[in-house]
Design brief:
This protein is an alpha+beta fold and 317 residues long. It is 22% helix and 26% strand.
């Protein structure tokens, strides 16, 4: 799990009645952050500050939330919790928490009646822990779906997932890389061998993509643009510059491509955050490769742990 990276904590707040929620990743002091934003309709906050040309390097927390753009209000609750605990970027008049945030569109389930708010953001921080992290229909993964390229009739349940890898480097130190994902994509989720794990189902129960591997590109999805997004947070205990952490976020998007087909479509607003806590020295290319692996696996875990919701099947039953 992403919490195997020392100092990283994860907390969820979920509304099980309206199938929405938010998930927060709390960072240890002096964590360097970066971001890679793709897709035409991202919903986000504080992503510009993470650019390699911006002088603030440290990130206090990352928020992933449902509710579309309305859900960005949950970041106010995260800010309040962090301020109360004196966590954030020092300035002469106040310690200012740096909380990048990104949203998924989950209004189909909630019908817009409930969106994550400041109180839910605060509750997610209160629930944050380094122990076993809940996956599936929790937090920002409560109301998400996958495999929408063939229409709504054959979609499946997405969710929140996480994964990690360790690698022993010279001197006996351990390089740790983890990722968390919220999958709400047009595309199908793939197994490591390229077969479909979850996605668009035909009426006979087979995968639509098996009949024609390119039909998911030949037909226009029967969904509005801007209603699909996969959110990624990749974290490592490696020591990286802000430039390299932004490069790491780009590699996190490579992991997304490994696990979702098609990916980064006109209808997706994918965002990947990267975090480096700076505890060990490791080659960037090694860290980047491991990030790609754990991002892909966190996406797969998000659907493996997703439960059936109403008439939309999930792999977890």
């Amino acid at each position: 799990m992403i919490t195997r990276v020392p100092g990283i904590l994860v907390g969820h707040s979920t509304d099980p009645q309206h199938h929405t929620g938010c998930s927060v990743i709390l960072c240890p002091e002096n964590t360097v952050g970066g971001v890679d934003v793709r897709g035409p309709s991202p919903g986000s906050r504080e992503t510009a500050l993470l650019g390699p040309d911006k002088h603030v390097e440290d990130v206090t927390a990352v928020l992933l939330t449902g509710g579309s753009a309305f859900g960005l209000a949950a970041a106010d609750g995260v800010m309040r919790y962090l301020e109360e605990n004196n966590l954030g970027h020092w300035t002469p008049r106040a310690t200012v928490p740096i909380v990048p945030a990104a949203v998924v569109y989950d209004l189909f389930f909630s019908e817009g009646k409930r969106r994550p708010d400041a109180e839910m953001g605060y509750q997610a921080c209160q629930a944050a822990q380094a122990d076993e992290v809940a996956q599936g229909n929790v937090g920002a993964g409560a109301g998400v779906t996958v495999g929408k390229w063939a229409g709504f009739e054959g979609i499946m349940k997405g969710g929140f997932g996480t994964a990690s890898e360790e690698f022993e480097i010279e001197g006996g130190e351990k390089l740790i890389v983890g990722a968390a994902a919220v999958t709400n994509c047009v595309g199908d989720i793939l197994n490591p061998d390229g077969t479909v794990l979850a996605g668009a189902r035909s009426p006979d129960g087979s995968w639509f993509a098996e009949k024609d591997p390119l039909q998911h590109l030949a037909r226009e999805p029967e969904i509005p643009e801007g209603t699909n997004t996969t959110l990624i947070v990749a974290a490592t205990n490696a020591s990286l510059s802000k430039v390299d952490v932004n490069r790491l976020a780009q590699h996190a998007q490579n992991g997304l491509v490994m696990a979702i087909r098609p990916s980064h479509t006109t209808h997706d607003g994918d965002i990947a955050f990267a975090l480096a806590t700076g505890q060990v020295e490791a080659r960037f290319d090694l860290v980047a490769y491991l990030v790609e692996l754990v991002v892909a696996e966190s996406i797969r875990n998000s659907v493996r742990r997703a439960s059936t919701l109403k008439d939309i099947p999930g792999l977890a039953g």
